[in-house]
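Reagents: none. Just compute today. HTH cro/C1-type domain-containing protein.
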Amino acid sequence: MASEFSTLLRRLRREAGMTQEALAERAGVGVRTVRGLETGERADPRVTTVRLLADALGLAPEEREELLAAVVRRTGPGDEPDTPDDAAERVAPVAGRPGPADRVAPSAGHQGEGPADGAEPVGGYPHDGSAERVAPVAAHPGDGSAARAAPVTEPRGPVSHGTLADVAEQLAQAVAARWQREEEQRQVHDPYPLPVRWRPALEELTDHWANIRRLPAGAVPGPLDLSGRLDAIVEVYRRVPSGRLVVLGRPGSGKTVLAVRFVLEQVKSRGRTGTVPVIFSIGSWDPTAITLRDWLIAQLTRDHPGLAAPGPGGSSLAAALVETGRVLPVLDGFDEIAGGLRRPALEALNSTVLPLLLTSRPSEYAAAVAETDVLTSAAAVQLTDLTPGDLADYLPRTTRKAGGGDPAATAWDPVLRELRDRPDSRAGANLAAVLTTPLMVMLARAVYSDTSGHDPAALLDTRRFGSAEELEEHLLDKFTTTVYRPRPEHRPGGGPRRSFDPERARQWLGHLAHHLTRLDTPNLEWWRLGSGTRRSTRTLVTAVAVALTVGLVDAVVGTLFDPVGFQLADGLVAGLLAGLMFGITYWFLIASRGAAVAPSGVRLKMFGRAGGTGRRTAHRLAVGLLCGVVFGSGYGFVRGVLNGVVRHCGLLVTLRVGLDDGVVYGLVFALATGPTFGVLSLLETPLDVRSAVNPVGLLRTNCRTVVAQLLIWAPTFGLLVALGAWGAMRILPALLGPLVWNTTATLKLGLISGLGGALAYALALTGWGQWLVFGRFWLPLTGRLPWSVVTFLEDAYERGVLRQAGAVYQFRHARLQDHLARAHRTSRGSQRPAGPGGAEPTE
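Predicted 3D structure written out:
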């Protein structure tokens, strides 16, 4: 029976004017596959197969999404069972939709009908197969099958969102969607990808061929042919038996573009049991602080919060994917690791046998190799320069025709003519040295092809640009000015693009670049925007924010119980004490360690089963009790001493009042904080596996989580404080003597503690609160960032200045970041950035 998907596929094929045979040949699948999908005989087509068909049909994005959506709608418990030939066409969950537990990968003897079927793990890295184990059962009489595969369920701990194979498939879909958008954002295919070619690297940067080819002792090895170009990167990688490849290239030569293309092609051709390629910006890794596997797991969890959910054996899904070899690390930017850490990083990489693809600038990698050794079992290739012929083919197609007598003439003709006819001239030599990397060509295109009124013939002016370095600086400088020029275009589905003054935008981008240089990381994380300031400044600003918030809450709420004048004074004291106590806490827990409060990877579930466990709840309860005792005792002691001083009590009386208040508040806050933390833990549940995030998405998710925490924390904490105070007043007078307390004081303490304590905790000890304090107020207030920071960052991403790498932003290229940071330091008169490890900034 034909389904919606079958009807849609048949209609799209006919609109494309293709026969079933032609579609099958172009997509690289069997004719029987296409025929079965159109008639409805084949249920649950693989997503990779549907993608191949969509590519072969040349579908527009809307039609492509419609076809994939039809796959999701047809997948359900009522589907007919597959025939044996359909085994290679099973679809894994789309957009995070888990499939039934009895779906299995094709058996070892089954031959798939296309390149996406039955693909083996790249590099031969073994999986544990726990989610894929099948047991043959007797053939069903008359069905023509040699054997059927019966599922063996996962024997270990629960996987809340399906088997590991399902999770890996969902991760693959999220990764592909993310980097597909990134390619579109960078205009990689407009009008076509610049040619990125490579040749084998120097032998001293490559391991022994016997190790690369995994040959037994005594075998005579020979080198592999690893030359190729961008569209063949997966094919070249698969020629390497060890599955370990190093890609070297000078700045802007296309290493990241190659990594993105590798990921997209690998995902497109992977089978259900194949590894999932994931790009990791390795520049943020400190190998002396965390192992490679733990760092990979942490990065996966940051970019895909749902992978923090429990997996087999009690570990997280991210840990299970890494440990079972289902993730193929694409480690981009080895050269961006801090100089003193590259040697231990290479040694740590050599201590593993993980298949991987590593990119780096040649000099930094060669220096690390000279200090230790090559990457074990790794082949190496080096990207080559673009040729004048490449420029002659590409640049004229990026701009409008010049008009006049020659319809093929463009504004780039004088530049291309100089490169072709006078390569030894000063202008030709400068151009030949600069326009040999995709980065500089794309910058030149942005400045002179995508902008009216700019003539590329200006690049021939040797009086302005006496050297190749000056020409590069000109392109980098003009790029930011050009992309922020006023433009009338509208956002898709929205209003006009937000305009920013080019000079102010350069200042703000310069601050961000300088901030990343100080932290020695390429990752622009919204929760660490305040980390670029001095530790003392961070602590002081946080303490002031808490003091103002608690003081305001105390003053406003307290007027319900006491006169305004008294309450203003009480609010001032309460705010100062809260700011002092939270400032001390913030200093010891965060600032003094050079750390930052990471965003939460959970959400709160009010109804239904949440993700809390007894062990985690007990741990949070203990931590809450300890924090309550420490904070309450300190707060009570300081408050009691101040009251004694204000009332001119003697020293001994003052100390006695302080100790008594310390005991009372310590007990009250301990009995309130511990259970509140426990309640929050019981309501926490990991984010969904398919919740791959971008920076803005993660910010909004954490905002909702913190708001939900406040809505639970405030009434729960306030009620427990009130009950604790009431109970303490019944017990403690027998131990401490008469205490002045009443019901009004109990209600007042409960309300103020609930509201003020929740807000103070959110501002000082949550990632979103730190973003609010620094990203929304302090940095804009001091002129370092605009007031609409999120809008500015998203706009910079849309203009191509920033790129997204999972949950963080990065500058489009490290060369651009260096240029903006250097310009910022020059304008600020500050020449010395902080070193690695969070050294004290000067701002």
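The domain at 1-91 is CATH 1.10.260.40 (434 Repressor (Amino-terminal Domain)).
Action item: order primers for follow-up constructs.
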